[in-house]
Amino acid sequence: MSNTLFDAYHTVKTAKELWNQLERRYITEDATSKRFIVSKFFDYKMVDGRSVMEQFNEIKSILDRYSQHKLALDEFIVVTSIIDKLPPSWKNFRNNLKHRKEDINLDELGTHLRIEEDLRKEEKSKSEGSNHFLSKLSKRKVNVMLRKTMKMKWNLEGANE
Length: 161
Prior knowledge:
Blueprint: H1 3-9, H2 15-43, H3 52-68, H4 75-85, H5 91-98, H6 106-160
């Protein structure tokens, strides 16, 4: 027994009394831990700017702690809650998932989220590439316009002399 436990319980006379006190203490801690885990799941909110899959995996780790504490939560409720937790930029995707006729399980949801996130990354990189091309194109147009303007200015100055 650790020193702190010994100091707290060394005055207890019988093993049964010690057992009862320890049981009360740790059952209370376990109940508090369960409440914390339940709150952590229901209060979790996904945010923009972070990987949705990373956040999905954080939620799954919270759910793993549910099973460690022998807590059960219906998979339909879990999946629906996670869909509701998707970040604001995923609103259309969230609505599409909610309007599906068939139910999906947690693994299927993970697959859908991974595919959607990969598509969004691909789309973003394509649009950044085209924006880079457009900005180069715009710079070229500006340079051409400047050259034409300067040429006209020189031609006018040369004609006035």
